[in-house]
Specification:
- The complex is a heterodimer of chains A (about 240) and B (about 325).
- By secondary structure, chain A is an alpha/beta fold.
- Chain A contains five helices and six strands; from the N terminus they run H-H-H-H-E-H-E-E-E-E-E.
- Helices cover about 30% and strands about 20% of the residues of chain A.
- In chain A, strands 2-3-4-6-5 form a five-stranded mixed barrel.
- The longest helix of chain A has about 30 residues, at about 35-65.
- With about 325 residues, chain B is mainly alpha-helical.
- Classes of the chains: A alpha/beta (about 240), B mainly alpha (about 325).
- Chains A and B meet through helix 1, helix 2 and helix 3 of A and helix 2, helix 3, helix 10 and helix 12 of B.
Chain lengths: ~240, ~325
């Protein structure tokens, strides 16, 4: 693998990182707390490119002088990378052909049915209706302690639309603990919600339907008001 | 995968520009072709792209840390340090290497290049492989996240430590007893001279990153395809059976390629499964998953990966079941 190829592959990875960092799209893939580590990785990649380019420059000079091969200390070309290294161009190809987007309705119904166990009990909701709640928080409250903290309260939830083949759509939010590959979908079944298409972000005001409980960890929300919403800067909760 | 290493590495300059030119033109054609075909509109492609990129992006900082550490070991650690630090007896070196795994705070992506660096320093394969298996599973960050993910049952973190360390050491001892050096493509031993250290470090970082990164992409690719093609909820029907449950979650750990620092939260969400099955998910995942198998095949050869991955899988499974039965 020549130095020129090495530079191209390193630059491809660096390009992916820079694009996602500059546009803030990295939150579609990993937790925001990984930001410093991603910046550090980009810096290391940039340094690698600089040093490989410098070596190539020096080697070109030497070849000119000696019309020979690069036998510099450290072996020069002695390390041969496998062809699989060429696949490092793939992330850039994917970024350039599929617009970066967070996980959406397609993935929401495909994960395992499990949701993390709810531990302990919840503090009462703050006073004043409607109360802004995260979708996962709402789901966990409905599943915990008979949903006692939700009874008689009006809540406002922000999430996206996941179509339901057997009934009204689900308001959905993913929880990510490390990267999008480990995302868990939290869903709320809507009642009397507006007809909306998949992946539309919406803010719903409504009440938990106590009688419906939370079968399979999916509580029901009686929709009172709705408003289209901007996708949040971090699409995932938790 | 498994091909002989690239041999056109050291050719003369004129040929040197052909491959990069082909690469750029080829990549540009692929991009234009895919855009023209409108492939991003196909169902599941966006989900595939997100899962694929998330595995690669999440792993990148840990991979960078791993290749920096590995290159530093190769370039700056004195050649006889490994011999002085590890017991001469290979069977005794195994538990020491396993315990040393507690010191590498990172996930499994870092451990493959580091194990490779250790072998280049003359560490016996049995010890280096034990370290490779133990480090991502028993380091403090992973144990702390397990502690947090199972708030009601802190025995889970202890069980993870015991089972992971046990499985890693058993694999190390199996290698001492039955392993053959012909199975593994051992990296050339590097003896550093003072003047060249910095150069060796730089070359090592670039080489290891390209090497491991390529195989990381392979693993992420397979995992993302499976994620989109085969929804995970098919496993739910098997959750009731104890034995099938353990097997199902162990296989899922191989397929999902989740970072070991996060897998405890995912394991905790499998509430339909027995605690032993959840433990198996966390013990198997950091030791055997698609991206690890691809990276190991890349670094140590396909023959090695074909023997190593199934052995580790079985050892991890048995260690989980025994530990789960005793502790959970």
């Amino acid at each position: 693998m020549t130095r020129a190829v090495q530079i191209i592959l390193l630059a491809a990875m660096l390009g992916v990182l820079l694009r996602l960092l500059v546009r803030g799209e990295y939150v579609y893939y990993v937790k925001p707390s990984l930001l410093p580590a991603l910046i550090a990785s980009a810096v290391v990649l940039a340094l690698m490119i600089v040093f490989v380019a410098k070596d190539a420059w020096t080697a070109a000079d030497e070849e000119h002088d000696h019309a020979g091969h690069d036998h510099g200390p450290g072996g020069g070309h002695a390390h041969a990378e496998p062809r699989a290294a060429l696949l490092l161009a793939l992330p850039l190809i994917v970024v350039l052909t599929v617009a970066p987007a967070p996980l959406g309705a397609f993935s929401a119904t495909r994960g395992s049915g499990g949701t993390a166990p709810v531990s302990g009990s919840f503090a009462p909701l703050p006073a004043g209706d409607p109360v802004e709640l995260a979708v996962p928080d709402f789901v966990d409250r409905a599943r915990s302690d008979g949903g006692s903290t939700l009874i008689g309260r009006e809540v406002r939830l922000v999430g996206f639309v996941t179509p339901n083949p057997d009934g009204p759509w689900w308001l959905t939010r993913f929880v990510v603990s490390c990267c999008a590959a480990d995302a868990t979908a939290y869903r709320v079944l809507t009642r009397d919600g507006p007809p909306l298409t998949a992946d539309t972000w919406v803010s719903l005001t409504g009440r938990w339907v106590e009688a419906a409980g939370a079968p399979d960890g999916i509580p029901t929300l009686q929709v009172v008001e709705h408003e289209l919403a901007q996708p949040p800067s971090n699409p995932y909760a938790g | 995968m498994g091909r002989p290493p690239d041999v056109d590495g050291g050719r003369a300059a004129p040929r040197g520009l052909l491959l990069p030119a082909l690469l750029l033109v080829g990549a540009a054609l692929v991009v234009l072709g895919l855009r023209a075909a409108g492939w991003s509109a196909a169902p599941g492609i966006a989900a595939f792209a997100t899962v694929f990129l998330s595995i690669v992006i999440q792993a990148t900082p840990f991979l960078v840390l791993g290749v920096l550490l590995s290159a530093a070991i190769v370039a700056f650690v004195p050649a006889d340090l490994a011999e002085r630090a590890l017991p001469r007896n290979r069977a005794l070196a195994v538990p020491v290497a396993g315990a040393a795994g507690i010191l590498l705070p990172g996930c499994e992506c870092a451990s493959v290049p580091v194990a490779n660096g250790l072998m280049r320093k003359g560490v016996t394969p049995a010890a280096a492989l034990t370290f490779l298996l133990a480090a991502p599973a028993v380091n403090p960050i992973v144990l702390a996240s397990t502690w947090v993910a199972f708030p009601d049952d802190h025995r889970m973190a202890l069980a993870r430590l015991v089972a992971s360390l046990g499985a890693a050491m058993v694999v190390g001892w199996l290698w001492v007893a039955f392993g053959r050096t012909s199975w593994i493509r051992l990296p050339a031993r590097t003896n550093t001279t003072d003047g060249a250290r910095w150069l060796i470090f730089r070359h090592g970082v670039v080489h290891d990153f390209l090497h491991a990164g390529g195989y990381l992409v392979v693993g992420g690719l397979i995992s993302a395809v499976i994620n989109v093609v085969l929804p995970a909820h098919w496993v739910d029907s098997l959750a009731e059976q104890v034995i099938a449950g353990v097997l199902v979650l162990a296989v899922l750990a191989v397929v999902m390629c989740i970072c070991s620092e996060a897998d405890a939260f995912v394991a905790a969400s499998f509430t339909q499964f027995s605690p032993t099955a959840q433990l198996a998910f966390m013990v198997v995942g950091p030791m055997v998953d698609l991206k690890l198998i691809a990276m190991q095949a890349g670094f140590f050869g396909r023959d090695f990966a074909l023997r190593f991955a199934p052995t580790v899988f079985i050892c991890a499974l048995i260690a989980s079941v025994v530990t789960g039965w005793a502790l959970l």
